[in-house]
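Journal club side-thread
Mid-discussion, someone asked how the predicted structure for our own chain would compare to the paper's figures. Pasting it here so we can look after the session.
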Amino acid sequence: MTPEKKTLTMILSGAGATICVVCALILAPYFLTGTATAATIRIPREATKQVLSDTLTKYFGHDFASRTVKAFSTMVKNPATRYGAYDIPEGSSPATAAKTLARGAQQQVTLTINGVREFLPFADRIARKFDFSGDDLRHAISDSVIMAAYGLTPEQAPSLFFNDTYYLYWTDSPEDLIHKIGENYNRVWNAERRHKADALGLTPAQIMTVASIVDEETNQISEKGRVGRLYINRLKKGMRLQADPTVRFALKDFSIRRVTGQHLQAPGPYNTYRVSGLPPGPIRTTSVATVDAILESEPSEDLYMCAREDFSGFHNFASTYDEHLENARRYQKALDERGIK
């Protein structure tokens, strides 16, 4: 190689190395800078680059946000096409965050339902996890056409929401949420369970209402079936249910420990001391376990129940009113002795 070619080669090599160093310096912040915290980034329906930048800045600062938006823009021109919620883990670089947003793979939202008593107010808590309002959800579950698809009335809508954990997306609409949770309701209420309900002379919706009362009456899974059968026995005989939990629900006071004669005057269709038959809908969300306990319960002559005087959480059952009165006297005495009003 001639001296001239050697010189040219050295110049080109030096220039290439310089370019590499410059590129590395420019690109390093995009790949080597990591977030100090994790955050969920929500891109709204009509998001612009500025909206995305402002959201990222809120959690990660201006420099990180600027680099992420620049990297994101090389992959996606319109942020609104990535409407959704995305988890950016701690330690993510701008390049990694941009890739997460550009891929459009949303993080799932976890919704746990467990013993919700007043479902319409609870809709506000559900809505905080999604891009809709509590009013939007209340409107959807109050839609008779939507509920009729599951054999339910708007009053029976809480039946749809079995106690369980559901996985949805922030972008799901109230109708999407109902549809996905409704799919679970239909899986539970398969042909076998519907046949068992029919054998008891009740619809799935009616079983759900009975189950909700049972769950308020006892936490003991071993006696849930028996409690449920007792109420079914009363229904068949045309007796009022006279279930204390329905009184608490009618009064919207779940702190009441001792239901008195004054409480029994609570107005409204949920007080089963004053109204015959089942309430219009469940008084809380219930579980598959409680439903199965009722569907598989043994026939009985039970018509009355009273909490045991030992406060064990179990009940004394009776088939006659005289026997029930004796059970009730023992329990009332125990309440008096403990000063429970």
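Post-session note: The mean pLDDT is 90.
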